[in-house]
Each structure stands twice: as C-alpha cells, then as structure tokens.
Amino acid sequence: MTKQEKGLWVTVVVLSVGVIFMGTFIFRGMNDSSTNTDLSASDWKEPVASIAGQMISEKQWVDALKTRYGNKVLMEMLNRQAVLAEAKLQGLTVTESQVDKELQSSMEGYSSEQAFYDEMWNQFGMSLEELRAEATYQVLLEEIATRDIAVSEAAVQEYYEEHEADYKPIRLFDISMIQVDDLDSANHVLERIEAGEAFGEVAESESTDEYSRESKGRLGLIEENDPFQPEEMMRLAEEIQIGDVAGPVQVDEHYIIVRLNDIEEKQGMTFEEAMEDIRMMLALNDSIPLSELEEQLRSKYGADIRVKLERPAS
Fold first, then answer.
1. Which of 12, 40, 104, 209 is deepest in the core (most CB within 10 A)?
2. What CA–CA distance (Å, rounded) separates 314 from 312?
3. Given this model, what pLDDT does residue 124 score?
4. Rounded Cα gap, residues 168 and 153, in angstroms
5. pLDDT, tens digit (0-9, with 9 covering 90-100), for 171-212
6. What's the pLDDT at 115?
7. Taking the alpha carbons of 107, 112, 113, 115 in that order, is the dihedral positive or negative?
C-alpha cells in the first residue's frame, strides 16, 4: 500500500468507522435523556473536562457530538441494522477466514500486524474487536451486493491474464527517510548519524517531512517500482544493504537521507489463488454502489428517524 493509499484508507476509517463507535456513546446519551426528564441531574451535569476555569459538562459534550456527527452516526447505525436483517433473510454468514482476509488487505503497507493494530488504537482508539466488526460488516455488504451477479470463469481468467504483473512476487522495502531543505543541513544530519545518533531521533528533530517525522522517519513498507515514491529514493534503497544509511540525494527542492530497515518478499498468487478475489471485484463492478444499496436496505426495513438533527452552522 502506498503512502497515498494508506492515507485514503485512514480517511475512510475516520469517516465511517470511528464515527460509528462514537455513536454508541452519543446515542446512549440520547436514550438516557429520553428516560430522564431532569436534564440537570448531577450525573448529567458532571464535568468531563475543564479549561481556564470553565467546566465542560457531559451534556455539552454529547450535544456538540450530536450536532456535528449525529446524522452520520445515525445513518451508519441504521445501515448496520438493515444489513444484518438482510443477511439473516438471505442466510448469509461471514467466516473468521473472510474477516481475517479483509483485515489483511487493510494491513498492507504496515511493517507488521501489530504495527497496524497499534496505529489504529493510538490514532483512533479502535480495538481489534471493533476492527473485526467493521470488516465483518464490509464482507456482508459486499456479499449482499453481489449475491445475484454471475461472473464467468472466462472473465476471471481474462482479467488475471491482463493484470498478471499484479500477481507476481514483489519486493517490499521498509524505508526510513530524513528530508531537509539544503545540502549543508543534509550533510550535517548525515554526520550526526555517522557519529552514532539514532536515525529515528534525528529524523524526529530535523526532518521537514511532516508525514514521516511523526513516525521517526519511517515510511513503512513500499513496493519496488512504486510510482508514487521518488525514483531517487527507491534507487538508493535498492543499492544499499539492510541497516545501511545512504545519501544525501536531491529530490525536487529537498535533500533526503535514506535508511533501509528491511526487505520483505510479497508472495505472488496463482490463478487458482486469485480467482475468488477477482470474481468478487468484477461482481462489485457490476453491482449498484454500496452506498445506494445501504439506502435501499434502510428503505426496505422501514428506517424511521424520530429525532430532528440540526445542521451545524457553516
């Protein structure tokens, strides 16, 4: 997974997953308020935070969350219920192996499974259970969308042959990088590393690349010939040994120093191994958009929104 693709995936997580689990708290608060007519009860007024002498109550917090995220959360909660109802009607189930496979596809580009789980927890507070719940939902939704779509083996074979390069073994480079804006700074950084300073510590303090600086210069696993990465950086990584540091080399108006942390081999896939993935992909191409399917299922199962959610002020 490239840096851009990883960023896109994280954006999807923020918009569709994180908000869902936030909804558990938000709408629990809504339900509590409906049964408690005294909104000034001590537990509702109890401050959850304070700043500059001002208290923020739980009600203020919940109201702000409802105003900003309420509509999205409610739609997602309704979608989950509708999809579960449709899956039960159609007799669809999801196996542990399907969930594992869905999660594995999300982990591409991370140095390990644990690195993926750590980032999801540290950045979004998402547990393994929550990640598996979202993966389960995605698999069910796709199965519903493609249930009545037939894809011939000939079509699958044709796709595999046209994209055979995508299924060949490929090397993945685990790279760290320090970026600075001039050659003198680059040489100074290199001298510090050669003198024994830790690459990650120098990257954290000196790199001008915000994305990698936050992870002490580490870019994660990058496929060889990744078109989104600078050719100069990838060429350096291919020329050095694991653990070596190389550079500086100019990339556009910047100078970078590279450390090769590791190299992994991504296994290829035979036609037999890839055919089910290809079949699902081609079926999804012929299905209605998943968001439209969710809307249809909400309608089918009589979604009834009984609260008025105000639109946030622009």
1. 209
2. 6
3. 81
4. 20
5. 999 999 999 999 999 999 999 999 999 999 999 999 999 889
6. 83
7. negative
What φ, ψ does residue 59 adopt, rounded to 5°? Answer: -65, -45
Rg for the chain, CA atoms, rounded: 25
Nearest Cα residue to 141 out of 86, 74, 72: 86
User: Which strands, in side-by-side order, build the sheet including 245-251?
Assistant: 218-223, 170-180, 254-266, 245-251
CA distances 281 to 234, 277, 278, 313, Å, are 30, 6, 5, 40
Q: Which residues pair with 197 in a beta bridge?
A: none
CATH class of domain segment(s) 169-266: alpha beta
Rounded to whole angstroms, the Cα distance separating 143 from 128 reads 23
Q: Name residues of the chain where pLDDT drops below 70.
A: 1-45, 109, 111, 309-314
CA distance 278 to 283: 8
**Structure-block tokens of residue 109:** 């580009």
Q: How far apart are CA 144 and CA 91, in angstroms?
A: 10
Q: How many CB atoms lie within 10 A of CB 140?
A: 20
Partners of residue 178 on adjacent β-strands: 257
Angle 42-47-48 (CA atoms, 0-180°, nearest 5)? 130
Task: Give the list of residues 6+ apart from residue 287 with CB closer than 8 angstroms, or none.
Answer: 145, 146, 149, 293
Q: 258 with 177: CB under 8 angstroms?
A: yes
List, for residues 42-56, the tens digit of each pLDDT value: 556 678 899 998 899
The DSSP-derived string for 98-148 is HHHHHHHHHHTTSSSHHHHHHHHHHHH---HHHHHHHHHHHHHHHHHHHTT
Q: What local confidence, expressed as pLDDT, does residue 311 receive?
A: 62
Start-end ranges of CATH 3.10.50.40 in the chain? 169-266
